């Protein structure tokens, strides 16, 4: 029997298309014990790094026969304030297991930063705006200490010692020697910069593009006032410019 629906706009609801910015997890192994360990190492000291961000799980890096235990995987991700909503890129058995766990299939989800043919390149979503007002740290940071300026710049007025880590969604200013790790543009802001009066870091990174101390710094910036910027976007390179005082 055919049911006719009245052609009028409902008074109580309306359905429209919507877009939602998602965080993507490229799952490379179904070994949840190892994943648990690596998540704890990376995010254990910054439990507020994610803010209930919607998540799509990309299974493409997994071997076809590796089916994750989604009943354990999803609660693990929620511990880090991630909200797993969808899955993509898996084989038939992997996608079936994911959907049985309540995830939606999202085969058309496009991950920012992946290389695509020029005709297929999707426009990357703009990074979240960095609000005014920087986080200011007055004391030296010792080895093992970590500071994260979520959604803003970070200003450090004292030394960042080797083994310490400073992270910001915006710029990082260190008005002292920088000898630990500095990660600016942590959520993808390619315009973020790192400034230091004495640059001698273990690692510097902007929007995921990084350089470690294994590659010696040029003599004109090593232990000198320097700014670090990213040229070429998320697939570009770090450039270090001396700051003339």
From TrEMBL:
- Keyword field contains Cell cycle: yes
- All copies of the Septum formation inhibitor MinC N-terminal domain together span 13-84
Which superkingdom does the taxonomy of this entry point to? Bacteria
Q: Which UniProt keywords apply?
A: Cell cycle, Cell division, Septation
Q: Does the keyword tRNA-binding apply?
A: no
Q: Which residues form the Septum formation inhibitor MinC C-terminal domain?
A: 136-228
Gene3D superfamilies in UniProt = 2.160.20.70, 3.30.70.260
**What is the protein's quaternary organization?**
Interacts with MinD and FtsZ.
* Protein task: Cell division inhibitor that blocks the formation of polar Z ring septums. Rapidly oscillates between the poles of the cell to destabilize FtsZ filaments that have formed before they mature into polar Z rings. Prevents FtsZ polymerization.
NCBIfam families assigned: minC
What family is this? Belongs to the MinC family.
What name appears for this protein in its UniProt entry? Probable septum site-determining protein MinC
Q: Which gene encodes it?
A: minC
